[in-house]
Write a structure and sequence with these properties.
The structure holds 3 protein chains of 3 kinds. By secondary structure, chain B is α/β, with parallel strands linked by helices. Chain B has 5 helices and 5 strands; from the N terminus they run βαβαβαβαβα. At the A-B interface, α4, α7 and α18 of A face α1 and α3 of B.
């Protein structure tokens, strides 16, 4: 970007500057010997053109909406329309969650995001012994199509876009969604939304896995294939760095491990005979937003550039949409403190700005009380308002990629890209992400970073306001949201009633057909859909697959 | 005491967020303890059986799913059924302050909420284990 | 009721406590073991070893489940290394054996190596005896790592099972030297992976140099899917039959006992030498002089021994 001669001059004045600084710091030392980012990367005092030597605008940035998409995936970005303000919600029963969704739609939320309870996420019905105490706790309990019908009652599925945070049993919940739409008279080709469907990060960080790797990868490619024909507007996977970051990774690890997972999915789909350009446009990503705003902005930009290059160079993708990395963002749950929870509103605002300046396609903002319990309606509203303030008042959304060209941002974008690439190469050497998870490499790297972070806090090397500095005596917060413990009993009785009412012979027949299909190479989606339509329960359907596929064994690296 | 303190670190319930459990496991190890790590999705029965076989001084449970009021007391109850009275039982995770009195009444001896330095937990275990 | 009686009655807490006491060099445990030693020798002791990531714990889990289907009682001792710096350790093998936790016919115990000389073999040897008295039919000792620990466990085991996986590359060469010969049965785990056949062939080739009348079988398994487990268990049992039929069991156990006695003597001697702080002080002083080249280590050792004899 700068001519050699000019760079030489800049170098001279930079050296002079450093010499001057050295004198000043002798008298008045800086606050710290070494400054680090939120991820522990060293931050220099000053960034200049010297830090982006060799930088090539056309190659490294390009225009928004074109390769390598560093500046964003759409030409006009938020001048066209804002990101989707998507609030993740759901708790207790389908009826109560339905009420919350309708409230959010009224408040201006543009897309629904469904949180499921843990038994649902692990493919157990509410009456399973392991579901004890868990039903309806962290999300809504869905046992069968009957619950799904209640969940979307009065919400026209051709009008909303729905994101479902579901992974191991994603195929079953997607089938239920399709079946509810059928009942509303909406055909599958009109459905818009996303399933998370990212099993690799479950093994790495989030823990709601069911089946072993190979069976899981098959289910995922089955969904890719089925949706490319039947549900073409559906985003079939949301490859998630969010939970990897929550587990304690650095920003560069978040990019490196997430894109490695992405590579594994693309590999699996190609191996299953799919053409890369048929499914790649439906891949989407999901990243975290932490407090180090500049590092985070660089992270999103680096991820976009790196993925574009991988899709083009490694997989030979031809369609532009195959190369453009679209992503959802959620603000970082692990950055919130239980101490002085109001401070979390400020953290979330900073993180919102990071996501917006980084060009996110949709955003969930956490509520201030999430380090304590499930958020109340009031705190969810403040979280949503935070997005609206950034959108309408801050001006950050009015020009595309406003931080581009900053010496620091460009140097940092390059640094994260390079470090992420190193992880991707290492994982390639191990034999791909599934293998690197299996032998615990990825988990170990994340755990090392998490432990260092914790030690830094305990040594006061890292300050968390209100937690290890500026503490006050506080009273225990009151009025936290509580899930009625009777939800478990209610769900149990609903299942019982369902099993008395439905055509049990038909359910048996369809489960048997699914069992046979599991043992073959057939696409499982039509069989799952048939079982769902007959009101086979989630636990029954996953139970059949558990029997055939077995269950995943956790690889623990400490 | 010239023997290492043995601690069972476990995750009852179905949530898969084990960052806290793993960080505390590492911190206890670095404090010279022997940590028996049992991983995710542990039932109270599994936890108690493992604690007995491993002859631990302390059971440390991390839970973020919200099922703490159901699952943690059950561990204490099962220990009583087995006539075990020399194991310290502690918990941690996303547990609202207002639930802590209930848990303590049920025999969970201490509850560590988010933001507790690992050194506090380590010192607590050292000072409160029941066998010297 | 004392611990020995409670152990004989089959109380799990007594088993657990006695193992702890043995680990902590508690003399009471030794006294109990002296009294009950005659009740040992019934269990088939199987050492399971192999490189990290070979899937030993999962394999152990499946083997134990297979034996449980036959109604056998089983003990498992899972050994993990202890940090040499802090003395602490994280023992994570139970993660893969969680379902066994609630099986009344299974007892699983995790042990740290605790870093001290001979510590592992002494404590595991005691734990094996305790489980044997408790009345299990099979005892698995699982160790991680490649090196001395394998040789150590072989001393306690009747049958040593070496677990390998494809894709270790050069590692197999390193393992070959010195460690391979302790394997009585070989398992190639994760046999659905590329290179499984090659790994099996390489092991077979190495075994061609084995001249004894027991040709170690090489079994391909996929532990996570329970494939090849019954066959592997059959090989383990065959090895035991072979040992019994050829009289080698008696020989092997005699050898193992000899090693154990010598180990114990060594430990006792070391203790006697270093026991009193004054003697330890003496060693420290001599070490300083040796380091400064004022004295030589040979004479220093003789000085300490002379001093012990005289006191």
């Amino acid at each position: 970007m700068f001519e050699k001669e000019k760079l030489g001059k800049i170098k001279e004045s930079f050296d002079a500057y450093e010499a001057k600084v050295a004198e000043t710091t002798k008298k008045r030392p800086e606050r710290k010997e070494v400054f680090e980012t939120g991820s522990g990367a060293v931050v220099n005092r000053l960034y200049t053109p010297l830090d982006i030597e060799g930088f090539d605008y056309e190659n490294d940035l390009g225009m928004p909406g074109s390769y390598p998409y560093t500046r964003g995936v759409q030409p006009t970005m938020y001048r066209g329309r804002f990101w989707t303000m998507r609030m993740y919600a759901g708790f207790a029963t389908a009826e109560e969650s339905n009420k919350r969704y309708k409230y959010l739609i009224e408040q201006g939320s543009m897309g629904l995001s469904v949180a499921f309870d843990l038994p649902t996420q692990i493919g157990y019905d509410s009456d399973h012994p392991l579901a004890e105490g868990e039903v309806g706790k962290v999300g809504v309990a869905i046992d069968s199509l009957a619950d799904m019908e209640l969940l979307f009652d009065g919400i026209p599925l051709d009008k909303v876009s729905t994101s479902m945070t579901i992974n191991a049993p994603a195929s079953v919940l997607l089938a239920m969604y399709i079946a509810v739409a059928e009942k509303q008279g909406v055909t599958a080709d009109k459905l818009r939304g996303t399933i998370q469907n990212d099993i690799l990060k479950e093994y790495i960080a989030r823990g709601t896995y069911i089946f072993p790797t190979e069976a899981s990868m098959r289910l995922i490619t089955n969904i890719f294939e089925y949706c490319s024909k039947e549900v073409p507007l559906w985003n079939t996977i949301s490859i998630s760095g969010y939970h990897i970051r929550e587990a304690g990774s650095t920003a560069a690890q978040e990019v490196g491990f997430t894109l490695s997972d992405g590579i594994a999915y693309v590999d699996a789909a190609i191996k299953a005979g799919l053409d890369v350009d048929t499914f790649a446009p439906r891949l989407s990503f999901f990243f975290n937003a932490h407090n180090d705003i500049l590092e985070e902005v660089a992270k999103y930009r680096a991820a976009r550039r790196l993925w574009a290059r991988i899709m083009k160079e490694r997989f030979g993708a031809k369609k532009a949409k195959s190369m453009a990395l679209k992503f959802h963002t959620q603000t970082g749950g692990s950055t919130l403190t239980a101490q002085q929870p109001e401070n979390n509103i400020v953290r979330v605002a900073i993180q919102t700005l990071a996501a917006v300046l980084g060009g996110t396609q949709s955003l969930h903002t956490n509520s201030k009380d999430e380090a304590l319990a499930l958020p109340t309606e009031d705190s969810v509203r403040v979280a949503l308002r935070t997005q609206q303030i950034v959108a309408y008042e801050s001006g950050a959304a009015d020009t595309v990629d406003p931080l581009a060209g900053s010496y620091y941002i460009e140097a940092k974008t390059k640094a994260i890209e390079e470090e992420a690439m190193k992880y991707i190469k290492r994982i390639d050497e191990i034999g791909g992400a599934p293998r690197a998870i299996d032998n615990g490499y990825i988990q170990q790297e994340i755990m090392d970073a998490a432990y260092n972070y914790q030690k830094d806090i305990e040594n006061d090397k890292r300050i968390i306001v209100g937690m290890n500095k500026f503490q006050i005596e506080e009273e225990a917060p009151k009025g936290l949201l509580r899930v009625d413990p009777s939800v478990g009993e209610l769900q149990k009785s609903k299942i019982q009633a369902l099993k008395e009412k439905r055509d049990n012979a038909l359910v048996e027949e369809r489960l048997e057909a699914l069992r046979t299909a599991c043992k073959s190479d057939e696409n499982l989606m039509p069989y799952i859909l048939d079982a769902v339509r007959a009101y086979g329960t989630l636990g029954e359907i996953c139970g059949v697959m558990r029997e055939v596929f077995g269950e995943y064994q956790q690889s623990v690296q400490l | 005491m010239d023997r290492p303190i043995r601690v069972l670190v476990s995750k009852p319930g179905l949530d898969g967020h084990d960052r806290g459990a793993k960080v505390i496991a590492r911190a206890l190890r670095d404090a010279g303890m022997e940590v028996i790590y049992t991983g995710l999705r542990q039932t109270p029965e599994q936890i108690v059986n493992a604690a007995i076989q491993e002859d631990v001084d302390c059971i440390a449970m991390s839970i973020l799913s919200g099922a703490h009021n159901t699952l943690l007391p059950k561990v204490v109850e099962l220990l009583k059924v087995e006539n075990v009275d020399d194991i310290l039982v502690i918990g941690g995770g996303v547990i609202p302050d207002e639930d802590i009195p209930f848990l303590k009444e049920k025999g969970i001896e201490e509850v560590f909420t988010p933001g507790t330095p690992t050194s506090v937990t380590i010192d607590y275990i050292k000072e409160n284990i029941k066998r010297k | 009721m004392d611990l020995g009686e409670r152990l004989l009655k089959g109380e799990k807490r007594a088993v657990a406590r006695l193992i702890s006491m043995a680990e902590n060099h508690d003399n009471e445990a030794i006294e109990i073991l002296k009294n009950l030693y005659k009740k040992t020798g019934n269990a088939h002791v199987i050492g399971i070893t192999g490189p990290p990531g070979a899937g030993k714990s999962t394999l152990t889990d499946k083997l134990v489940k297979a034996l449980r289907r036959e109604g056998k009682k089983v003990g498992v001792i899972a050994v993990d290394p202890t940090s040499p710096f802090t003395g602490g350790s994280i023992l994570g093998d139970r993660v893969r054996m969680n379902e066994l936790s609630i099986d009344p016919g299974v007892f699983i115990r995790s042990m740290g190596t605790r870093g001290h000389l001979g510590g592992l073999s002494k404590a595991t040897a005691a734990a094996v005896k305790i489980l044997d008295i408790y009345g299990v039919d099979y005892i698995f000792i699982e160790t991680v790592g490649v090196g001395q620990s394998e040789v150590d466990i072989a001393k306690n085991a009747d049958t040593t099972l070496m677990v390998m996986v494809p894709g270790l590359g050069d590692d197999i060469q390193a393992i070959k030297a010195g460690i391979m010969e302790i394997g009585d049965v070989f398992a190639v785990n994760k046999a659905d992976r590329d290179g499984a056949k090659r790994t099996a062939t390489e092991i077979e080739m190495m075994l061609d140099f084995n001249k004894s009348d027991w040709r170690p079988p090489v079994q391909k398994v996929i532990a996570v899917n329970n494939q090849g487990i019954d066959e592997l268990l059959e090989h383990i049992k065959e090895h035991m039959s072979h040992l019994k039929e050829t009289g080698k069991l008696q020989k092997k156990r005699t050898e193992n006992s000899k090693i154990e006695i010598i180990d114990l003597i060594q430990q006792k001697l070391m203790q006697m030498i270093l026991d009193k702080s004054s003697k330890e002080e003496m060693v420290n002083q001599l070490a300083e002089e040796v380091a400064l080249r004022k004295y030589d280590p040979y004479s220093a050792a003789e000085t300490v021994l002379e001093n012990m004899k005289n006191s």
